[in-house]
Amino acid sequence: MDSSLVSPFPSSPSSPSRALPPTAPLLPETSRAAAAAAGSRQRDVAAEAVEWQEQQQQEDDEGCARVVVADSGAERSGARSAPRPWSRAELPTLSPRCRIPGAGHSGSEPGQRPGSPRDPAPEPAPSHLEPAACPHHPRAVEAWLDDNPDFARSYFVRKATREMINVWFEERVRPVVSVDRTSSSRGVGGGALGHAGATGAGGAVDGCRQSPPRKISASEFDRPLRPLLMEDPSDGSLTFVLGTEAAAPRSWSSPRPHAEASDVPGRAASGCVMAMATSVSAHGVGSSRSVSGERERFLELVKDIACRLDVVTLCHRILLHVNQVLTADRCSLFIVREDSSQERCLVSTLFDVSLGSTPEQARTSWLRLAWGKGIVGYVAATGNGVNIPNAYQDPRFNVEVDLMTGYKTQSVLCLPIKDNKGEIVGVAQAINKKGNNEGKFTEKDEREFGAYLAFCGIVLHNAQLYEDSLLENRRNQVLLELASLVCEEQSSLEELVGRIIDIILSFMPCQRCAVFIADKDSPNIFSRVFHKSLEVPGVAENTSQSESQSHPVSFIYAEFVMKMLTLLNIPDVHCDNRFNLPVEERGNYRTKSLLCAPIQNRKKNEVIGVCQLVNKLEEGAGEVRPFNRNDEQFVEAFAIFCGMAIRNTRMYEAVARAVAKQTVTLEVLSYHAIAHEDECAKLQTTSVPSAQSLNLLDFTFSDFGMAEELTAVGSLRMLLDLSLLQTFSIPNEVACRWILSVRKNYRRNIAYHNWRHAFNTGQCMFTVLVTGQAQNVLTPLEMLCLIIAALSHDLDHRGFNNSYIKNRSDHPLATLYGHSMLEHHHFDQCLMLLNSPGNEMLSSLSVQEYRSAVGMIEHAILSTDLATYCKNRGEFFSLVKDGTFNLEDQHHRKLLRAMMMTACDVSAITKPWPVQQKIAELVASEFFDQGDRERQELHVEPTDMMNREKRDKIPTIQVGFIDGICLPLYEALSCVFPACAPLLSGCQSNRQNWEKLTTRCDGQQDPGAELNDDGLK
């Protein structure tokens, strides 16, 4: 054969030559003649393709047949490799030499999809080869299939797999950004439906983009959401933490997992499309084009609804499409809902939709049908569709619907809408067939209606899942808003409850929301009532009152819930026979639906109020609807947050009242704590003796035998001799009043820690400063703070130590302070006096000096706690012993002031022996009183120091106190201030005397065994 092209179709003895596809005219003339001869046998083109597919499957090891193009046109001779037949997996694949740039199949092996990992590197193709030069090039094959649609359709019906159909369908129904509006304009037809905004594929996609999901309101909470609360089996309380099983809603409307939901359209689509393909095959090739048009129209309808997530808009589009497909007069769609009694019912989301109507027009009225009642109820209960030629002859038809609407129903076609699990999610109803068939729906209508509703069930269920997620999100936002309100608003109960009512009304529109506040101390069951009324939609009136006459019906139910501690949901209060309700006379206001829940204090398990919602409103329509189970769940959760908020606010108000009372009390105490004016005037006019005449400069000073008035005069002399009044411009009147006020705030019934002890501590500090020459290294501000701290360090001492307060956990001082309770209290009292009118000793200081002075006074007073002294003394002793103590170092100075305070506080141990004995008796008397209280109140055995029955151990205790506390301190202080050596010698002398007394006591113990915070001072 004189040809430059070798045919890829095999020849064998058992079969005649195969005819080439319609691209044969591109072959040489001899090949075209052979093709024409073969075509004369009138072999069907479809049979030719089938025979091509049934060729040998095994690939030849030597490779594919090559196409050789001769530049000179001469015939090539010689042996050629036997051509290999095509396999199914290889169709259509280029031969190795027929690779066209940009064809997308270059480099593919036989039977391999382009772009697979096994693809070799692309081989450059001759630039002069075009797709037409290769009869089995993909473009050539695709062109041939376009010219032979009957074969392509027949092959698709017979050979297409489910996966191919799924992929095809998903690509077709997926919304696209740009749509060719000229490609198909017959999808949904024109006419009245065109006014609804759907004109082919382009209109469908535009509708998806231009109709965003509408705002979700709580009036749509008719389908059950996930329960917010459940009862904890351990204690019976309500909790937000749910188990997996408890959190699952009812199976008939339970949301499926996302993975399963995404797979549903493909599975459902495959079944419907296969059914359509079977219908095409049954009609035959002759009618295939008309059926193809119906299929395309059907797919356009599916595309129009597939991208919609708003339930109302989706239902409206579905009904418009049903009108178009069935040529029905009117259509309705009923959604499965659950009422407040958790019984299923059917609600007409859109009723009597006709061509040209809008969703707003179709929503003006709605019907609620019982489950299993009427034609729609029967279809929902049984899952079987019905086709009724004459509705009035069917006993299931409810004539009242026609009477209510004024419409005459003749024929009815009603089918269920199911989701992927076969659960019924709605019922679609077409009424009054228009056109031929005597106004009756045909079997074809049933098939088309059922096929379309199969898609609608999936899309509707997904839209409901989407709206459920929006509702869940909105509900959680409201609860989070309430939670934040609990943390933020605590100052006023009126403002708190007002904001709570605003939040709940924004989420759940109703005519009235009220919060009743209970108070067990009030003569009435409710002490206060806060409510907001929506008498006129859109107008809110805020009022608060406590009288039950304004809303007697609401008050009756609130009182009932208060006593029974149970949630109450009444669809119509006037149908409730439990109460003899009075007649309401408030204009157009009439209580109908009511939801009431108790507000409890979960910690104390007591009712603190009642939350009540009256007359739930249908958004847009303004009609009163009953509350449902979702409303109950929300109100239960709301009541918990409301309870916490009210409880916290009432506690805050109680604390605010307590603070106000405390302020008044402090004012009263401050008045009585401040010295009287006549005492101040007397001290101002008194002649102040010198420090020498009062013996204030001697370390052996004793206040025994000194009159009470002289102690105040002596304190004034200390301030004068240190030049503190002149340095800080302190008026003499202020100094006198402050000294007398400090003396007045020491308790006189305390044996030792009284004003006399404070005066002795102040005198010792004065002696250390003057006689001990400490004033040479300390600043005037430091000396002022040390004198103030010494005189105030035991203000309002109660006669017991910190150990007693620690054992009394309920003591107020233990609640106020964590450590050094008495010392903190002494400082607070000192600061209170310094800030009292007429006692401002620090008023002339600058802000920085004042802060520094207050800090030094606080540190000095807290240093008198022997527990604090024991923590700090090690560092001070090491610095002194090593000779590294530096007065220029502020930390060292701070340590020095602390040691000076302790040395002056326990200076009684350095006094002459007769004075020391008397002071020891006073200390022992106070300690024994504390021991008696511990035995009586705390029921514990006191330590030996506090035990009156072990009085004989006082000498041993004193020796231990001197060795453990006093001697190391005075030794170190004498090293810093050598002039303070009399303190050390006096302490050593008293130790010898106490040690002599220990020989008289039986059972001598370890000297340090009986030490506590105070010791015997």
Short description:
The chain has 1017 residues and is of the alpha+beta class. 47% of the residues lie in helices and 10% in strands.
Polypeptide structure, described:
With 1017 residues, the chain is α+β, with helices and mostly antiparallel strands. The protein folds into five domains: 24-154, no CATH class; 160-212 and 260-307, no CATH class; 310-488, Beta-Lactamase, CATH 3.30.450.40; 489-654, GAF domain (Beta-Lactamase, 2-Layer Sandwich); 677-839 and 846-998, Orthogonal Bundle (Catalytic domain of cyclic nucleotide phosphodiesterase 4b2b), CATH 1.10.1300.10. It contains 32 helices and 15 strands. A hairpin with a 5-residue loop joins β3 and β4 (344-353). 36% of the residues are buried. Residues 1-50, 55-129, 173-221, 240-287, 536-548 and 1003-1017 have low confidence and may be disordered.
Give the SSE map:
Elements lengths: L28 H11 L5 H9 L84 H10 L1 H11 L2 H12 L26 H11 L19 E2 L6 E2 L4 H4 L10 H26 L4 H19 L4 H16 L1 E11 L5 E10 L5 H4 L5 E3 L3 H9 L3 E3 L10 H7 L6 E7 L5 E10 L9 H46 L4 H15 L2 E9 L7 E11 L2 E7 L6 H13 L3 E3 L23 E8 L4 E12 L6 E2 L3 H45 L3 H9 L22 H14 L2 H4 L4 H13 L10 H16 L9 H13 L9 H6 L4 H5 L4 H14 L12 H16 L3 H17 L7 H16 L7 H26 L15 H23 L4 H18 L19
Antiparallel strand pairs: 1-2, 3-4, 3-8, 4-5, 6-7, 7-8, 9-10, 9-14, 10-11, 12-13, 13-14, 14-15
Helix pairs in contact: 5-8, 6-9, 8-9, 8-14, 9-14, 10-14, 14-15, 14-17, 15-17, 18-21, 19-21, 19-22, 22-23, 22-29, 23-27, 26-27, 27-29, 28-29, 28-31, 29-31, 31-32
Pathway: Purine metabolism; 3',5'-cyclic GMP degradation; GMP from 3',5'-cyclic GMP: step 1/1
Pfam families: GAF, PDEase_I
Catalytic activity: 3',5'-cyclic GMP + H2O = GMP + H(+)
